[in-house]
Amino acid sequence: MANLEQLLEQHFGYSTFRPGQKEVIEAIIEKRDVVALLPTGMGKSLCYQLPGYVFNRPVLIISPLLSLMQDQVEQLKRFGEKRVIALNSFLQMSEKRNVLQHLGQYRFIFTSPEMLKNSQVQAAFRQAQFALVVVDEAHCISQWGFDFRPDYLKITDWMDAVNRPPILALSATATEAVVKDIKAYLHMSQPFEYIHSVDRVNLHYDVVQLEKPIEKAPWILAHVLKTHGPGIVYTQSRKKTAIYTERLLSNGIRAAAYHAGMEAEDRQFIQQQFLAGQLEWICATNAFGMGVHKDNVRQIIHDHIPSTVANYMQEVGRAGRDGQDALSILLYVQKDEDMTKFIITEDIPQERHVEQYLEYTGREENPAVMLDMHQISETGFRVLSYWMQRLAPQEVQQKLVDIRLSKVSQVDEMKTMVTAQKCIREQLLHYFGQSLNEKPNQCCHYCGIEYGVILKEREHLETLGYMPSWGERLSVLLPNI
Questions:
Q1: Overall number of domains in the chain
Q2: Which residues form the domain of 109?
Q3: Looking at the structure, do residues 277 and 426 belong to the same domain, yes or no?
Q4: d(CA 341, CA 304)
Q5: CA atoms of 98 and 118, how far apart (whole Å)
């Protein structure tokens, strides 16, 4: 076996591994399938990056978001790696063809689950002889596969079941049920598992119960004006991202809105400004965060009940990556969970959609006409098509009912954690099948918490109104020009 410490120093400049990294890497080099659950900030990417320098064949990384791919590609380039590419929609058709024709010249190839359904990509990948296939943020298989992005359930369809490369599934958070889904849908064979505690002792959890929804925006403004960021305000509404941002800007706080309805270039620009410290606060939907590696985020504020405890953990885990104290605040008004339930079940196909699908196929028409007739959303049609091709119609009906009930139940679990008046940290660990050994000071709302101990309070806002010029902003995005 290669001297891993020597390779670590040579390629990444580190002298020692973080907990779990070496064990995972050794199992990969032994060509075993691996499930690795490492908390945010524990260096999950190194678990496939270092093996890439042991093998003489390319490593394929399946990633959920374009921004995450681009971030990982840029990170490798900063370490001096040139043989890296992201095979995604940012490439022109001619560029994609060139990449597929020369896969062997790359050490790291990033792509998405949706790209894997392309027949040309599948054919090229079968010939590529990958040393390793990595599924990054593997919890998305369970979180998104059944009712949002069904291509997550088909990740291994293109692989030769006998001669396939080992698979590494990486995530920061996953319950026992999610790990079971990961192993089943990736067809893993007796995988090595490394599961680190999800507890982050430097994160502190607060719940603020308000009387009315209209009290949330004034509370957020008053709090941000009193305390230091950087921070992220998570909301469910694109409109609210703009409302919160406008209020912060008008009070001298450098802030920007971020949501999936914005152009990709604008989202990338705002992300880079936040990373560079030109923005102190981001007001965002859950479209923001995955792949954003900013070590000094001090606060995460939720103005709503997240759809699952796992989602909540993913989002609050974006704070305090530098190991310093960070605060998570969840604002709650009674019945907030009803809005979350409505949002997460809105796109799940219903009984009438199954009947319409059957009517179209019975007339030998393409059921995709349902989209043209505005009978179903794009997400709903993707989900419906996936299950209609795999189950009998009655089974599809039951599957969709089960999905809806499961999602509603997960919201109720999140509400219980917020309102149970029990230690939030202890509840979080219990959700992931783990136990709390010792509570840190300023643990959570129910154990006792003081903002002044965790956060620095502002003394003035004299410099916060400054916004860099366009030239200065572009110099951050394009440093070599």
A1: 2
A2: 4-195
A3: yes
A4: 11
A5: 15
Show the 3-state SS of the chain: CCCHHHHHHHHHCCCCCCCCHHHHHHHHHCCCCEEEECCCCCCCCHHHHCHHHCCCCCEEEECCCHHHHHHHHHHHHHCCCCCEEECCCCCCHHHHHHHHHCHHHCCEEEECCHHHHCHHHHHHHHHHCCCEEEECCCCHHHHHCCCCCHHHHHCCCCCCCCCCCCEEEEECCCCHHHHHHHHHHCCCCCCEEEECCCCCCCEEEEEEECCCHHHHHHHHHHHHHHECCCEEEECCCHHHHHHHHHHHHHCCCCEEEECCCCCHHHHHHHHHHHHCCCCCEEEECCCCCCCCCCCCCCEEEECCCCCCHHHHHHHHCCCCCCCCCEEEEEEECCCHHHHHHHHHHCCCCCHHHHHHHHHHHHCCCCCCHHHHCCCCCHHHHHHHHHHHCCCCHHHHHHHHHHHHHHHHHHHHHHHHHHHCCCCHHHHHHHHCCCCCCCCCCCCECCCCCCHHHHCCECCCCCCCCCCCCHHHHHHHHCCCC
Task: Render pLDDT for 423-462 as a digit per residue (tens, 0 to 9).
Answer: 999 999 999 999 998 999 999 999 999 999 999 888 765 4
Within its chain, how far is the Cα of 299 from the centroid? 18
Name the residue among 119, 126, 112, 117 with its Cα closest to residue 165: 126
Same domain, 35 and 143: yes
In this model, does residue 82 exceed pLDDT 80? yes
Cα 63 to Cα 66: distance, rounded to the nearest angstrom: 8
Digit-coded pLDDT (tens) for 129-142: 899 999 999 999 99
In this structure, the answer to whether residues 74 and 121 fall within a common structural domain is: yes
Question: How much is the average pLDDT of 318-325?
Answer: 94
- CATH (domain of 418): 3.40.50.300
The last residue of one of the domains, among 195, 219, 247, is 195
Residue 366 lies in a domain: no
76 falls within a domain: yes
Q: State yes or no: cis peptide before 367, omega within 30 of 0.
A: no
Q: What's the pTM?
A: 0.87
Q: What local confidence, expressed as pLDDT, does residue 69 receive? A: 87
**pLDDT tens digits for range 225-259:** 999 999 999 999 999 999 999 999 999 999 999 99
The answer to whether position 304 is within a domain reads yes
Do residues 188 and 286 share a domain? no
Average pLDDT along the chain: 91
